[in-house]
Write a structure and sequence with these properties.
Helices cover 16% and strands 38% of the residues. The chain has 471 residues and is an alpha+beta fold. The strands form seven sheets. Strands 15, 18, 19, 20, 21, 22, 23, 24, 25 and 26 form a ten-stranded antiparallel β-sheet that branches. A four-stranded antiparallel β-sheet has the order 5-9-12-13, with no helix packed on it. Strands 2-1-6 form a three-stranded antiparallel β-sheet. Strand 21 and strand 22 form a beta hairpin. Helix 3 crosses helix 5.
Length: 471
């Protein structure tokens, strides 16, 4: 291709770009007037054959093959394109009609006053009776209080309320997420069918979220509360190996939940007859541990007939307020006394080591040894540091028959830990120790088959399996 041809092609390309930029700016000025407009359903112009014949030079003519005028709708980071304003309004109207089967609410396209540049958004208004003397008073834009002048003589005192005082049905509808709408000049292939666009914006899509672990959570409970299968939670988080993996408070877990880009918040007044329970009443005891509780009063369900104001996001209820009720049977609340002190935790009393004998029945390792092992053993070289499994006070430190050199520690929650077959003891009776503090060195004293640490946890004076308590 010659240099002249290259230059001509470049000039044509630049000309097309400049023409499109000028036309876009012209459309913004022409079709987004700065005066307040309540409904933009006829705001944008589509050139017709009659316009062409009339020779109206004030209306823009855009003719780039493969491109056409459309509406861009943006919700969060999702963008769809629809052909005309009727489709835009229909998509949003169909969305709210799922929850308003009486047709009392209408979707409207309005100027988006929160944007510096001219843009549109969608609002939901209550449909009003045309015979109303004050039409403006009966329009309740979602999210705003309705101002209605009612003569004081017609207002019922609170004591005179009855079921007839309430009008049942959907009272408010609005979209939960901000919606941006602008006219765009796009490739025809980008314009979607209205059903596909609605599906992309209003139907559930897999969305990644962060779940922060709360006190008392387990992986199973998180799976149930979020609706995410346990195996999916494990697969999405590298820190989790299986359902027994340890989790801690404030740990952030990645979960994927089904959620639409655009959701509808709607409030309905309804009349219900139902049994109901009162919230649990707690008595907090500052001298008990949080795992201690006593139920003082057992609950009893009540029964009432009521007017409820129920707010939902799509199908999920977010609030349920009782506006009026007639109680048929009084409920009784459950009363529980619970401790406030966080109980001590227990850690493995050494670093490393090889588990050689678990808790429970076993074959005696040597003459004089028990066939029922009351603790756990870890093989480790003589002189390995032995740590206090939990904070407490030393109850015994010395020779303990089959234990050899042994240390007993009493803990604030009533448990006791024992550390046997030691080569050296670093603490004395009555001494307070902290969790993780070095209290001794491992050895091979007493009835022992080799250098190791013998460890016990006692509850109420009886040995229990330490692995049920180690953190």
């Amino acid at each position: 291709m010659s240099n002249n041809n290259h230059s001509s092609y470049g000039l044509i390309k630049v000309g097309v770009i400049l023409k499109m930029a000028l036309l876009t700016a012209f459309l913004i000025v022409l079709y987004f007037p700065q005066n307040d407009i309540e409904d933009y359903s006829d705001l944008f112009y589509t050139r017709s054959s009659s316009d062409a014949e009339s020779g109206d030079e004030n209306k823009p003519e855009i003719d780039v093959p493969g491109y056409e005028n459309a509406y861009l709708i943006k919700v969060n980071e999702t963008i769809v394109y629809l052909k005309d304003s009727d489709q835009v309004k229909k998509m949003f109207q169909d969305t709210i009609d799922k929850y308003d089967d009486k047709g009392n609410f209408q979707a409207s396209i309005l100027r988006n006053s929160s944007r510096e540049l001219t843009a549109l958004t969608v609002s939901v208004n209550q449909v009003c009776d045309n015979s109303s003397e004050k039409l403006d008073d009966c329009i309740a834009t979602a999210g705003l209080e309705k101002a209605i002048d009612v003569p004081s003589s017609e207002i019922q005192p609170e004591g005179e309320l009855s079921f007839d005082s309430f009008e049942l049905g959907v009272k408010d509808v609005h979209f939960n997420e901000p919606v941006e709408i602008v006219q765009a000049y796009v490739k025809s292939d980008n314009i979607m069918d209205i059903k596909d666009a609605a599906s992309l914006i209003t139907e559930n899509q897999e969305t990644q979220q962060i779940y922060k672990v709360q006190s008392g959570d387990t992986l199973s409970e998180i799976s149930i509360s979020t609706g995410v299968p346990l195996e999916d939670i494990i697969d999405m988080n590298d820190a989790l190996e299986n359902e027994s993996s340890t989790i801690f408070v404030d740990q952030e877990l990645l979960i994927t939940v089904p959620k639409p880009e655009l959701s509808v918040v709607w409030t309905e007044q309804t009349r219900v007859e139902e049994a109901y329970d009162l919230p649990i009443e707690y008595i907090y005891n500052d001298e008990w541990y949080t795992n201690q509780k006593v139920t003082h009063v057992q609950p009893s369900a009540g029964y009432h007939e009521a007017i409820a104001s129920v707010t939902r996001i799509n199908e999920d209820m977010v609030s349920n307020d009782t506006l009026y009720e007639e109680i048929k049977m009084q409920p009784v609340a459950k009363v529980v006394e619970i401790g406030t002190i966080v109980p001590p935790t227990y850690i493995k009393p050494l670093a490393g080591g090889r588990l050689t004998s678990g808790f429970g029945k076993r074959k005696a390792p040597k003459a004089g040894a028990s066939t029922y092992h009351k603790g756990v053993d870890w093989a480790t070289p003589v002189g390995t540091s032995v740590y206090a499994s939990s904070g407490g006070v030393v109850a015994f430190a010395g020779w303990g028959r089959g234990y050899g050199n042994v240390v007993y520690i009493n803990h604030p929650d009533g448990k006791q830990t024992r550390y046997g077959h030691l080569s050296r003891i670093n603490v004395s009776v009555g001494q307070s120790v902290k969790q993780g503090e070095v209290i001794a060195a491992s050895g091979n004293t007493g009835v022992s088959t080799g250098p190791h640490v013998h460890f016990e946890i006692l509850v109420g004076g009886t040995q229990v399996n330490p692995f049920d308590y180690l953190y």
